[in-house]
Structure formats: structure tokens, C-alpha cells
């Protein structure tokens, strides 16, 4: 009986290791580039992502699931929630051109970069955006052009995540929640 149990345990371990290897191969073969927005619904709000103003974002999970979000605020909310798809293997954001007026809607496709490589501008009012507006630029010089004459600030992705958590903590504290 113990020989049979040992054989079953070894077989189970082998199958588990084989599954892990398949999962790792699937992860390694993922296309980490941004996918076209097409007609995807936002993972947070359910609206059609391409109809929303840039910057938008997409998250590729380790299991291959790709989630699209309508805004950087939605991205930050999405990343705070546990995902059944596992950790993100890539987070991509659209970058805006500094010549684009922040108050205008820009629904045409924009270039995509890794979220960690972008510069985020907060503190600039923007109409028609759900939540706190966050603009995205490809480099500090582009962000500086947009910030000139404003009280906004430029943040890295890690700083943006801290800013977002602090903003929402202050908002909930002020509302008595």
C-alpha cells in the first residue's frame, strides 16, 4: 500500500512540475507588446475603452489574460484589487504628445510604453474624466512642457501609486468613511 501511495505521490509531483513548466513556457511566449484597443470593455467601468480619452492602459497577466482600462485612475484601482489571473507581467500605458491640449478629448490611438517608463502628470484639471485626472508622457521633458505655468506635478509610476493611495485615503477621511 505505501509503495502505491509513494508512486502516486511521485506521479502527482511530476504532473505538477510539468504543469509549472508549461505555465512558464506560456509566460515566456507571451507577446508583451500592447494590443490594439479595438472594442474592449474597461475592466473597471465596463465602458468601451477606445471611446475614452487617452491616456488609457492595458495589463497583461501572467496567465495570458489581457485587461484594458479606460483611464490611469481605473488602472490604479484595478491594480489594487486581487486578480484571479495572477500578477501582471506587463502594464502598458498610452503616452500623450505634449502639444495635445490636456482639456481636450483625444480618443485616437496613441503610442504605448511600459508603465514604469512613463512620467505621470497630476494636478491639472481636465473635463470629462472619471476620477482624478492623470496624464501620461514618455519623458520628463514632455511632462515639463505640459506642467509649465500650472501647479501640477510629475511623478514616476511608483510615486503615482503612492499619490493615488494617499489621495483616496484623504478623500475617504474627509467624507467620514
How are the elements arranged and paired?
Layout: H1 2-28, E1 57-61, E2 66-69, H2 72-80, E3 88-94, E4 112-114, E5 119-122, E6 134-137, H3 140-147, E7 153-155, H4 157-175
Antiparallel strand pairs: 1-2, 1-3, 3-4, 5-6, 5-7
Salient structural properties:
177 residues, alpha+beta, 2 domains, 4-stranded antiparallel sheet, 3-stranded antiparallel sheet, 4 helices, 17% strand
End-to-end CA span: 59 Å
Question: Would you tell me the structural class of the helices and strands?
Answer: alpha+beta
**Order of the strands making up the biggest sheet:** 2-1-3-4
Anisotropy-based shape? globular
Approximately what portion of the residues adopt beta-strand conformation? 15-25%
Q: Approximately how much helix is present in the residues?
A: 25-40%
Question: Quaternary state, please?
Answer: single chain
Largest beta-sheet characterization: 4 strands, antiparallel
Order of helices and strands: HEEHEEEEHEH
Helix count from the secondary structure assignment: 4
Tally the structural domains: 2
Radius of gyration: 21 Å
Count the strands? 7
Summarize the structure.
With 177 residues, the chain is of the alpha+beta class. Helices cover 36% and strands 17% of the residues.
What would you say this structure looks like, in words?
It is a single chain. By secondary structure, the chain is α+β, with helices and mostly antiparallel strands. The protein has two domains: 1-30; 31-175, no CATH class. It has four helices and seven strands, in the order αββαββββαβα. A hairpin with a 4-residue loop joins strand 1 and strand 2. It is globular. The N and C termini lie far apart (59 Å).
Amino acid at each position: 500500500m505505501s509503495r502505491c501511495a509513494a508512486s502516486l505521490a511521485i506521479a502527482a509531483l511530476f504532473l505538477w512540475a510539468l504543469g509549472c513548466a508549461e505555465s512558464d513556457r506560456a509566460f515566456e511566449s507571451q507577446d508583451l507588446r500592447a494590443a490594439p484597443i479595438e472594442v474592449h470593455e474597461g475592466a473597471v467601468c465596463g465602458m468601451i475603452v477606445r471611446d475614452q480619452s487617452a491616456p488609457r492602459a492595458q495589463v497583461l497577466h501572467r496567465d495570458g489574460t489581457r485587461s484594458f482600462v479606460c483611464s490611469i485612475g481605473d488602472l490604479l484601482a484595478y491594480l489594487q484589487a486581487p486578480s484571479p489571473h495572477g500578477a501582471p507581467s506587463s502594464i502598458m500605458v498610452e503616452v500623450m504628445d505634449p502639444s495635445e491640449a490636456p482639456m481636450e478629448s483625444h480618443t485616437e490611438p496613441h503610442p504605448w510604453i511600459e508603465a514604469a517608463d512613463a512620467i505621470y502628470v497630476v494636478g491639472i484639471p481636465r473635463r470629462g474624466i472619471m476620477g482624478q485626472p492623470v496624464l501620461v508622457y514618455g519623458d520628463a521633458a514632455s511632462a515639463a512642457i505640459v506642467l509649465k505655468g500650472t501647479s501640477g506635478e510629475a511623478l514616476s509610476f511608483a510615486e503615482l501609486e503612492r499619490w493615488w493611495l494617499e489621495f483616496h485615503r484623504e478623500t475617504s477621511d474627509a467624507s467620514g468613511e
